[in-house]
TrEMBL record:
UniProt record, GO biological process: ribosomal large subunit assembly; translation
CDD domains the record matches: Ribosomal_L20
Molecular function as annotated in GO: rRNA binding; structural constituent of ribosome
Record family assignment: Belongs to the bacterial ribosomal protein bL20 family.
Name under which the protein is recorded: Large ribosomal subunit protein bL20c
SUPFAM superfamilies: Ribosomal protein L20
Keywords from the named record: Chloroplast, Plastid, Ribonucleoprotein, Ribosomal protein, RNA-binding, rRNA-binding
Gene: rpl20
Cellular location(s): Plastid, Chloroplast
Role this protein plays: Binds directly to 23S ribosomal RNA and is necessary for the in vitro assembly process of the 50S ribosomal subunit. It is not involved in the protein synthesizing functions of that subunit.
Length: 117
């Protein structure tokens, strides 16, 4: 059987993969088998972490709101503030509340006073 030269196809496939991992260190950016493993791992991690990012930001916003509410004696806790917001049907999500809490604490205080009255 004659020898088949398939270097161009294989090289094109390998360079396409190596462009993805060009910033990785050591063998992870040089050896073909390791490159493919690292690419699979990187894509899996990015897919997982996009979901985790949403969870982490929500936790951050809740922590910020809770810190300001306890500091200014707006309510006793974050959970009571959110409960009263839902009771009064004020549609403010946690991201907006956290931005208000950081930038303008008096505004959060007036919102809480409106809820109470």
């Amino acid at each position: 059987m004659t020898r088949v030269r398939r270097g161009y196809t294989a090289r094109r496939r390998r360079t396409k993969i190596s462009l993805f991992v060009s910033t990785f260190k050591g063998a992870h950016s040089r050896l073909t088998r390791t490159i493919t493993q690292q690419k699979i791992r990187a894509l899996a991690s990015s897919h997982r972490d996009r979901g985790r990012q949403k969870i982490n930001f929500r936790r951050l916003w809740i922590t910020r709101i809770n810190a300001v509410t306890r500091e200014n004696k707006v309510f006793h806790s974050y959970s009571r503030l959110i409960h009263h917001l839902y009771k009064k049907q004020l549609l403010l999500n946690r991201k907006i509340l956290a931005q208000i809490a950081i930038s303008n604490k008096n505004c959060l205080y007036t919102i809480s006073n409106k809820i109470i009255k």
